[in-house]
Specification:
Strand order of the largest sheet: 3-28-27-26-25
Structural class: mainly beta
Oligomer: single chain
CATH class of one domain: Mainly Beta
CATH topology of one domain: Methylamine Dehydrogenase, Chain H
Helix content: under 10%
Shape: globular
Length: 364
């Protein structure tokens, strides 16, 4: 049995399978192409990734760069919560409650649930489609469901085969892109609810980013980051991650010239040039992030150990406390707010926290 401190974290990838117990996280099945011996060595190396001396601050502290502005209780939701999406005009938040088998629609004005869609198999990725007035839920059984934003009834469903996961919207045309299976992106036309193209590669896609006609995809099964031409339906390049593995979350900057990636083994935050694949920087971060975001000059890393790393340049300025297991979120630049999904833990109900990014933190 291996023990890791509060910054540790592991995830899934293809290949040989083994399990590691980590007291700060849920019991997880971990897999990878390497042996258990390699995982032990990587865990030892990752232990140094928590050496940052950034100050830890409560989200309620007036000095916090991320200040708690709203707490929305979800008392009936059990287990892990996955990704979030927002309807800005309607002021609604969509919450993928993977272990609960449901997706909540939250009224941000009142902090109440407007509807809960149940009976889903591992709902993971969610998206709001403004052009059709629908929201989409991608599930671990490979299905993708569309629901009306008016009465919350299902309007269509697509079966991609297996493990429909992260979802992004192509800003050029409103198409929805879903990562799924053992290595593919599906491009869906929401007007017809049909898959119009696919990009096939090796390894299940985790976090990915879109800009122009390009996509960049975390491929932890293959230990790589992929550059993809969505329009041509081809993978342009595969950039090996080297000794760093389990690259799950990804974010792109506003002009699409850089991506940020959080690795879990060894734990690290990397920034990469999207044209060349060149590593621009590498620094310590937590080892259990499933979402990260660029916010002006800052990078916000959502950490399952129970905090958000607020990073400026090469320094972690603060670690804002949340709750253990809260590793997913959504940064909404129009609201200057980071929404964090807090699972039910220690007698506390599940919740969504709205953390307002303080202007003083951005301007420094």
């Amino acid at each position: 049995m291996l023990s890791r401190g509060p910054c540790g974290g592991l995830g899934k990838a293809g290949g040989q399978r083994y399990e590691v117990y980590m007291p700060s996280l849920s019991h997880k099945r971990v897999s990878g192409a390497g042996s258990l011996r390699a995982a032990v060595i990587a865990l030892f190396l990752a232990g140094t990734a928590c050496a940052s001396h950034a100050r830890t601050v409560s989200a309620r502290d007036p000095s916090s760069p991320l200040r708690l502005a709203q707490a929305i209780s979800l008392p009936q939701i059990k287990g892990r919560i996955d990704h979030l999406a927002i309807d800005l005009e309607g002021k609604r938040l969509f919450v993928g409650e993977v272990e609960n088998g449901s997706t909540d629609v939250i009224d941000l004005a009142t902090g109440k649930s407007l509807a809960r869609v149940g009976g889903l198999r591992d709902p993971q990725g969610v998206a709001w489609i403004a052009s059709t007035g629908e929201f989409l839920v991608a599930c671990g059984d490979g299905t993708v469901h569309f629901y009306s934003g008016r009465d919350y009834r299902q309007t269509a469903a697509i079966d991609l085969g297996s493990d429909a996961d992260d979802v992004r919207t192509d800003a050029r045309n409103g198409h929805v892109v879903v990562g799924y299976g053992k290595g593919a992106l599906a491009v869906i036309d929401p007007a017809t609810h049909r898959v119009i193209s696919r990009v096939i590669f090796k390894g299940h896609p985790e976090g990915f980013a879109l800009h122009g006609g390009k996509a960049w995809v975390n491929d932890p099964d293959e230990g790589a980051v992929l550059a993809v031409d969505l329009d041509a339906g081809t993978a342009l390049a595969s950039w090996p991650t080297g000794v760093h593995r389990l690259n799950f979350p990804m974010a792109e900057n506003s002009d699409g010239t850089r991506i940020a990636i959080a690795y879990r083994l060894p734990a690290a935050l990397a920034r990469i040039d999207t044209t060349t694949g060149k590593l621009l920087s590498m620094q310590d971060t937590c080892g259990d992030s499933d979402d990260l975001f660029f916010a002006g000059t800052l990078t916000l890393v959502v950490c399952g150990a129970g905090h958000v790393d607020v990073v400026r340049g090469s320094e972690t300025e603060a670690r804002v406390e949340t709750r253990g297991g809260a590793r997913t979120g959504l940064y909404v630049p129009e609201l200057n707010t980071l929404y964090i999904a807090l699972p039910s833990r220690g007698g506390q109900p599940a919740a969504i926290w709205a953390l307002r990014l303080q202007e003083s933190a951005v301007e420094r």
